[in-house]
């Protein structure tokens, strides 16, 4: 069940305006199909189509199950760009422009006819209100489990007596959250700790004790002083891709005097951050026919970890009821990778952080896990974070809805977006062949031929492109 891989050659290639890397649902995809091979063909038929699908698979030694859903039907989103003679001289090329408008919802016309029988194989109802999901790829490392959502443009040229050439261009789709950036929500984790030791007493130093004093301490029946306190850890339970600033993790140590030894009452303690390890883990659940459900978890490369050694500048954690919590996320500059980083650095099949989504046969959740270690005097205490969080798509003002993002499009030629002129009948092949045997006349004939614009005709369903 492989994903579509890019196919491009001089025989046929699909190029997108500005080498676009990503689109949003509702965007207009502008591109062209290009052939850079010398060609003399009396008749060629060139088509281009838009496809989208969601696939899931589970396999072991005993069984193999699949789930397949078409999101964008290629046959219903197909354009015929050319039907006629093609002549491309040596070191020349020919291009045919096209446009597609991406839908905002999955095409419900591709769903099984027997809804009552097949709807149990889906996480969502079979209706017209299933949003077009973003591109996704996830694979389990321990078992044969995988799920992916992909979109691609496919071009095909059939040439009389010259065979067929095909080109495939994968297209990444990202979803954006409507409205302004979300307001981040924080959760407070209180962990109660008790530590004991003479080092909690101000001015105490074991190195200053005599040998006799050390022996007395060793055999003394008096327990060492005790400090009880709560380590307060604030962490986000809502995050948004491309959010500005750092990921906040706040810490504070609050003493519990009623459970603390008298000698330590109202004594300020030195508390320092020893270790912070934060990661966001993604849980993927797939559904195959049967229905059959399975899941797996991975940790995308969106995490922050810092271990503090003797030579590092100490990070002091506030101690006291009235002290202001310290944002160690700001101190350590903890950040999530942005959507732009993911588009430009990560290939299509690399497992990444994704906002939660649910579609027919795939759904995901995210969980924040972490370990915080704080050293109080010479005692180390630990708090564990483990909480499901909500990761939202970027705000729609990050890239602009329904148009390619500004950072996604380079300098483009105005010829990309010019509307095609009216369709003209192609020149007679024999006449064109005769003209091209005479120097400059042949060049002028080629220029005329290249100015001919493709026509868009209905497909077998009677629709023009997307509905």
Automatic annotation (TrEMBL):
Which Pfam families has this protein been placed in?
Arrestin_N
Q: What Gene3D superfamilies does UniProt report for this protein, alphabetically?
A: 2.60.40.640
Which residue ranges are recorded for the region named Disordered? 437-467
Which positions fall inside the Arrestin-like N-terminal domain?
15-159
User: Which residue windows does the record flag with biased composition (Basic and acidic residues)?
Assistant: 440-450
The record's section on InterPro entries has: Arrestin-like_C (IPR014752), Arrestin-like_N (IPR011021)
Protein species of origin: Clonostachys byssicola
Q: What is this protein called?
A: Arrestin-like N-terminal domain-containing protein
């Amino acid at each position: 069940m492989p994903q579509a891989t890019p196919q491009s050659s001089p025989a046929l290639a699909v190029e997108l305006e500005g080498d676009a890397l990503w689109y949003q649902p509702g965007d207009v995809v502008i591109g062209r199909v290009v052939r850079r091979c010398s060609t003399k063909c009396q008749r060629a038929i060139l088509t281009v189509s838009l496809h989208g699908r969601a696939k899931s698979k589970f396999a072991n030694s005993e069984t193999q199950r699949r789930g397949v859903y078409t999101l964008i039907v290629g046959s219903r989103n197909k354009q015929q760009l050319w039907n006629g003679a093609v002549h491309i001289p040596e070191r020349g090329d020919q291009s045919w422009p096209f446009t597609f408008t991406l839908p905002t919802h999955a095409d419900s016309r591709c769903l099984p006819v027997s809804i009552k029988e097949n709807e149990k194989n889906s996480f969502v109802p079979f209706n017209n209100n299933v949003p077009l999901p973003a591109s996704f790829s996830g694979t389990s490392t321990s078992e044969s489990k995988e799920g992916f959502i992909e979109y691609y443009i496919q071009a095909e040229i059939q040439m009389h007596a010259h065979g067929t050439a095909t080109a495939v261009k994968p297209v990444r789709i990202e979803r954006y959250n409507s409205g302004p950036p979300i307001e981040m929500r924080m959760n407070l984790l209180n962990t109660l700790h008790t530590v004991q030791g003479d080092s909690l007493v101000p001015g105490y130093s074991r190195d200053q004790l005599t040998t006799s004093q050390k022996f007395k301490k060793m055999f003394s029946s008096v327990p060492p002083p005790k400090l009880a306190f709560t380590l307060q850890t604030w962490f986000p339970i809502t995050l948004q891709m491309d959010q500005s600033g750092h990921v906040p993790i706040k810490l504070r140590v609050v003493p519990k005097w009623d459970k603390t030894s008298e000698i330590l009452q109202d004594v300020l303690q030195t508390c320092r951050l020893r270790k912070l390890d934060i990661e966001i883990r993604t849980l993927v659940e797939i559904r195959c026919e049967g229905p059959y459900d399975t899941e797996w978890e991975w940790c995308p490369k969106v995490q922050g970890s810092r271990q503090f050694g003797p030579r590092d500048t100490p990070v002091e954690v506030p101690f006291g009821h009235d002290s202001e919590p310290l944002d160690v996320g700001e101190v350590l500059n903890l950040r999530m990778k942005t959507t732009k980083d993911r588009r430009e650095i990560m290939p299509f099949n690399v497992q990444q952080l994704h906002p939660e989504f649910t579609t027919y046969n795939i759904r995901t959740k995210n969980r924040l896990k972490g370990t915080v270690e704080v050293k109080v005097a010479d005692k180390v205490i630990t708090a564990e974070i483990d909480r499901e969080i909500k990761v939202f798509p970027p705000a729609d003002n990050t890239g602009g809805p329904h148009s390619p993002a500004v950072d996604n499009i380079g300098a483009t030629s105005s010829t990309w977006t010019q509307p095609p002129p009216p369709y003209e009948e192609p020149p007679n092949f024999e006449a064109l062949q005769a003209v091209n045997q005479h120097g400059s006349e042949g060049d002028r004939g080629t220029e005329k031929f290249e100015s001919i614009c493709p026509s868009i005709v209905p497909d077998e369903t009677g629709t023009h492109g997307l509905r």
